[in-house]
Structure formats: structure tokens, C-alpha cells
Design a protein that fits this description.
three-stranded mixed β-sheet, 3 domains
Length: 284
């Protein structure tokens, strides 16, 4: 079973290159030698210009930690996203559309209310480009920007969105800004949104979502890899459903850690833990 799981992961590296890599991709970093070789072989046959951009990470430290990938994922699962100047955006998904509300918070530019609105709206536009792409958001998107008085400022926001999505492979259409500060966008649905991939409904009939067992198991694996660098044997405790999922689906990842780092890792089920919690300690 472990061998079969590992082979599936390796095949996924070629699929990832096929679906996401292109001439605008500057760098691809892979931390598994077999998956790296598979990606190189795929690119040699189909997109040789990418070969020099594929790199193997075999240094100290976990790859996700180096680029704060977990932090980016957590941000993409949140409803509220902070902006640099102290404002924020609220992103809410419904069956019919995705609604975005822009708020300036307590930020006030020294030059006045209009400049505050422009600065916050521009920050929101740049953040939305990143968040909508990262979240895989498709369909109708309605954005409620802070009201601005000058038409040229409204156009700045529309231009910022158009420029941000210019290199995006997903077909995107952006309307002008209405007199009420609303911009409508449509993006083609090309994959499941990130929240549907990584979370599930906690209880039928409620809007509350929690991380799937697979999502938590992958987080657990990355945390184990980080702690294992210390070279001491570890005991990992997780909720029974996550522990079972990890052994059934992700056991090869634990084997990979054992191959790379000569560390004993013991995985135990702890009924007192909720799904999204796990603990890592040192074996005595």
C-alpha cells in the first residue's frame, strides 16, 4: 500500500506540471527525488524550456516552511483578509456568487478621505487578484469597494484588476465600476475551490466547515518533518479519525521522513483531541 501511495504522488508531479506550469512559471521546487525526476522527464518530452526551472530541494528545513505555504493556505481559508494599511476585505461564498466587501478600518491618509479610499481600494484590488487565484474562485464575483468621488480613481481600481489578471490562464471578465462602487467579475470555473478541497461541512444543514482528515494529516506530516530535524525520536498524537486516515492514505509520507532523517516516529490516536488538533512530543 505504501508503495502504491508513493507512485500516485510521483505521477501527480507530472500532472501538476501539465496543468499549472507554463512559460510564465519562473521556478518549480520539489522536495522528493522521484517526483523531481518524473517532473523532469515529463518536461523533457513536452516542454523542454521548463527543464532549467525545475529544482530539487534537499537542504535543511521543510520546503513549506521556507516559503510559508501553510500561512498562505490558512489565509486563503479565512473569510477576513488583512490589508497592509490596516483595512481588510471580507470574502464570502454563496451558492449564487462570491461577495467581497472592502473596509478601510481605522486607516486615514493624511491627504484626506478620497486618498484613503483610493489607497485602501488599490490594496484590496491587488490582494483580491492573489486571493481569488489562490482560492480557485470561479463564477460571479461582486466586489463592494469603498466609495470614491473621482471617476479617474474608479478607473484606477478597474485597471489594477485587469492588470492583475492579465497573466492568469483562467478566462476573466471585469465590468466597470458602478456609481455605487460595485464591480462585477466572472471567472471560468476550472477546478474545485480551495475551501472545497481542504474543508468539508462539519454537520449537515450548517454552514460551518472544518478541515478534512486529509488536510490535517498533511499538516501533521509537515509538522513532524520540521520537528524531526532535531534528530530526537518523536511521539505524535492525533484524533482517531486523522490517525486512521494518515495510516491508510499518507503512510508513505511517514516512510519518506524516516528515509531522509534517521528518527523514530510513533503515531498514536488520542480520543481527547478534536480533528484539527494534534500534538508532537519527544519520546522518553
Amino acid at each position: 500500500r505504501v508503495r502504491r501511495q508513493r507512485q500516485m504522488c510521483i505521477r501527480d508531479s507530472a500532472k501538476t506540471m501539465r496543468d499549472y506550469a507554463g512559460l510564465d512559471t519562473k521556478r518549480v521546487i520539489i522536495d522528493d527525488l522521484d517526483a523531481y525526476n518524473e517532473a523532469k522527464a515529463y518536461c523533457a518530452a513536452t516542454m523542454p524550456a521548463m527543464l532549467e526551472r525545475i529544482h530539487l530541494h534537499n537542504g535543511p528545513g521543510a520546503l513549506f516552511d521556507m516559503y510559508d505555504i501553510d500561512g498562505e493556505i490558512e489565509s486563503a481559508l479565512e473569510t477576513r483578509v488583512e490589508l497592509p494599511s490596516g483595512g481588510w476585505i471580507i470574502i464570502e461564498n454563496t451558492e449564487a456568487l462570491t461577495a467581497v466587501d472592502v473596509n478601510s478600518g481605522r486607516f486615514t491618509a493624511s491627504t484626506g478621505l478620497e486618498e484613503t479610499s483610493v489607497k485602501t481600494n488599490l490594496e484590496a484590488a491587488h490582494m483580491l487578484v492573489k486571493q481569488l487565484r489562490l482560492r480557485g474562485t470561479g463564477g460571479l464575483i461582486v466586489i463592494d469597494f469603498i466609495h470614491m468621488n473621482e471617476p479617474e480613481n474608479n478607473q484606477k481600481i478597474v485597471n489594477a484588476l485587469n492588470e492583475g489578471f492579465e497573466s492568469d490562464r483562467v478566462p476573466t471578465q471585469i465590468s466597470g465600476m458602478s456609481e455605487f462602487g460595485l464591480i462585477e467579475m466572472t471567472r471560468k470555473r476550472v477546478r474545485e475551490p480551495l475551501d472545497k478541497l481542504l474543508t468539508e461541512v462539519a454537520n449537515p444543514g450548517t454552514p460551518v466547515r472544518i478541515k478534512t482528515r486529509g488536510t490535517v494529516a498533511n499538516e501533521l506530516m509537515r509538522a513532524v518533518e520540521k520537528e524531526a530535524c532535531a534528530g530526537r525520536p518523536l511521539v505524535v498524537r492525533a484524533s482517531p479519525d486523522v490517525e486512521h486516515w494518515f495510516r491508510a492514505r499518507n503512510a508513505f509520507l511517514l516512510e519518506r521522513i524516516r528515509e531522509r532523517l534517521p528518527v523514530r516516529v510513533v503515531l498514536e490516536a488520542d480520543p481527547s483531541l478534536t480533528r484539527e488538533r494534534f500534538t508532537i512530543g519527544y519520546l522518553k
